[in-house]
């Protein structure tokens, strides 16, 4: 593309997609062919989207591990006191981030499918062990307990030091170090378009440029993906290889579940819910009812998602802003990437942008992941650096008024040891491995089944892209909401019976069961049994669940081994048995199908 055509293109893209100045310059460099032709760029885009999915996959076990280390039910209702309220808040906030990371993984996966027509690789794509480095990540973190850590992000229970690593994951993107006057931009684009590749990249390297290798922030990484998509090499047709009806649908996502909500104060559980929003329960004076103190950690509008039509559970077409969206155009890709960046590290198109705090800049109802973790961390007593721990450019992006107000009355209160002494934290080990449990047959069998459940969840997620966009009869298990013609969307049925069951009904309860079992490690410490989230090293020949067409059978074998290992412990076996039954039993006593779906038929050669 010649210089004049490139200049017009980048100006059009700047207007269409709200590109930052750094992105405008990167698009100009891409248009000039510095990074290769379309085939080269498409291969790079596919690899980057897969890496983005693996970044999200790496974070989900980290957040789940810290979440499950928190005891949210030691004190309840009228008995809630300050430490339990903090523990509940921490649990709700961490799970709210984990839920949105699952959304981000789904959005990136939809883009991948739209571009390639093939499901992304999720199964066995998470880190093999922890501590783990995120793909292509140059770890950068504000000064703290583990400054500039290069050793990877650990799997650790909830504590101030782990929150530093969460900040490292969600580290905000510095979109540009210095403003370039708008009138100077055309000449700069011309100069960059004619500059040798190495010189152009060196120039951008000091200007907060987008990058997909050695990135400091996820924002930089996704920014580079935006630039490839916005380049002259791609158009809407490049994102129509995979049928939108076979992508993960908007109706499969809800921003909150029972684990993301928390009470802001003690409450009377016997009081009825308010008759209308914001109205008291009408009961005698005293503690409020549960509904009046409930906080929803994820706001309903926590993105600038587009308004578009989708089919509701009755088969009617409705319009609304849906965070989980299907992809069939470049505009869809950009909106999906914007949702990911706004919800995660915050996003600002220029330095000092006040929207950088929020994942929903319009309503400012919910903080970004970075700010959520920062507010939790400053409630620990060893949060001593406060604002001076952040680099100057980040202070410009973070709303200092918000931070100072958040600190008031909350900062420097708790320690992990104190929370553990109050039995609000389970005694989880750091970076557990299967080898740590190898001497204990019960611990090994339970942990292996847990790892298998997590891996099978990822296979089920991949399988969504192979589900035909048709309908099933309402008498199928899980088809509780039917459309106007008496059927239910096949993917909705599959999602409810597969993902909801595996994550909420089974894995959540199984990990809670595990932490009630104590295991003695090789160093003599006795700790709560915690999941190691293995990909390999367990199952047949140490290959996890093995090939996808064998995964259900191998998961069933792991369930049988868990039952056998706990057979001598009647209380434990009695708790394990119903969860194994929900996973692998073909039918329950009344003949209703109760197991997770066996998806081997969808994967005949993998």
TrEMBL record:
Domain Iminophenyl-pyruvate dimer synthase: start-end pairs: 49-254, 321-377
InterPro entries cross-referenced by the UniProt entry: Ferritin-like (IPR012347), VioB/RebD_dom (IPR026820)
Source taxon at top rank: Bacteria
PANTHER family per the UniProt record, alphabetical: MEMBRANE PROTEIN (PTHR34400:SF4), PTHR34400
Protein name: Iminophenyl-pyruvate dimer synthase domain-containing protein
The organism of origin for this protein: Pseudophaeobacter arcticus
């Amino acid at each position: 593309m010649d210089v004049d055509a490139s200049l017009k293109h980048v100006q059009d893209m700047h207007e269409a997609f709200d590109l930052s100045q750094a992105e405008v310059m990167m698009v100009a460099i891409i248009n000039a062919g510095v990074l290769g032709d379309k085939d080269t760029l498409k291969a790079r885009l596919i690899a980057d989207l897969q890496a983005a999915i693996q970044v999200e996959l790496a974070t989900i076990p980290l957040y789940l591990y810290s979440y499950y280390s928190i005891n949210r039910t030691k004190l309840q209702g009228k008995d809630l006191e300050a430490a339990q309220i903090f523990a509940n808040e921490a649990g709700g906030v961490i799970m709210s981030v984990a839920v949105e990371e699952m959304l981000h993984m789904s959005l990136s996966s939809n883009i991948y499918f739209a571009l390639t027509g093939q499901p992304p690789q999720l199964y066995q794509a998470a880190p093999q062990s922890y501590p783990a480095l995120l793909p292509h990540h140059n770890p950068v973190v504000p000064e703290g307990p583990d400054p500039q850590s290069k050793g990877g992000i650990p799997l650790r229970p909830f504590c101030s030091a782990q929150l530093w690593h969460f900040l490292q994951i969600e580290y905000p993107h510095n979109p540009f170090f210095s403003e370039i006057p708008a009138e100077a931009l055309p000449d700069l684009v011309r100069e960059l378009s004619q500059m040798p590749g190495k010189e152009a990249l060196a120039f951008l390297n000091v200007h907060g440029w987008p990058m997909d290798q050695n990135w400091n922030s996820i924002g930089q990484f996704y920014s580079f993906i935006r630039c490839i998509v916005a380049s002259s090499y791609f158009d809407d047709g490049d994102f129509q290889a995979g049928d939108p009806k076979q992508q993960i649908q908007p109706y499969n996502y809800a921003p909150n579940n029972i684990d993301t909500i928390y009470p802001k104060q003690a409450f009377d559980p016997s009081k009825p819910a308010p008759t209308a929003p914001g109205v008291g329960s009408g009961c005698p004076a005293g503690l409020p009812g549960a509904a009046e103190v409930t906080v929803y950690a994820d706001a309903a509008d926590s993105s600038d998602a587009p308004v578009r039509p989708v089919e509701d559970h009755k088969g009617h077409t409705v319009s609304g802003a849906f965070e989980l969206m299907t992809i069939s155009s470049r505009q869809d890709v950009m909106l999906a990437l914007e949702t990911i960046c706004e919800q995660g590290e915050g996003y600002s198109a220029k330095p000092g942008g006040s929207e950088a705090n929020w994942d929903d800049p319009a309503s400012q109802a919910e903080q970004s992941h970075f700010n959520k973790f920062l507010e939790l961390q400053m409630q620990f007593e060893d949060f001593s650096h406060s604002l001076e721990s952040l680099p100057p450019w980040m202070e410009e992006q973070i709303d200092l008024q918000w931070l100072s107000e958040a600190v008031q009355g909350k900062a420097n209160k708790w320690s992990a040891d104190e929370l553990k002494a109050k039995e609000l934290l389970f005694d989880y080990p750091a970076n557990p491995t299967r080898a740590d449990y190898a001497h204990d047959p019960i611990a090994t069998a339970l942990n292996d089944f847990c790892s298998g459940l997590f891996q099978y969840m990822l296979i089920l997620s991949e399988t969504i892209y192979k589900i035909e966009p048709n309908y099933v009869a309402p008498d199928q298990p899980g088809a509780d909401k039917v459309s106007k013609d008496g059927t239910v969307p096949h993917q909705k049925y599959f999602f409810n019976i597969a993902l909801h069951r595996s994550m909420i009904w089974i894995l959540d309860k199984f990990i809670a069961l595990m932490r009630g079992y104590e295991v003695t490690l090789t160093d003599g410490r006795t700790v709560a049994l915690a999941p190691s989230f293995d990909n390999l090293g367990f199952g047949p020949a140490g290959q996890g669940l093995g090939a996808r067409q064998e995964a259900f059978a191998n998961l069933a074998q792991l369930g049988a081994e868990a039952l056998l290992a706990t057979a001598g412990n009647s209380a434990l076996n009695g708790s394990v048995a119903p969860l194994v039954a929900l996973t692998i039993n073909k039918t329950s006593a009344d003949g209703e199908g109760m197991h997770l779906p066996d998806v081997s038929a969808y994967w005949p050669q993998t």
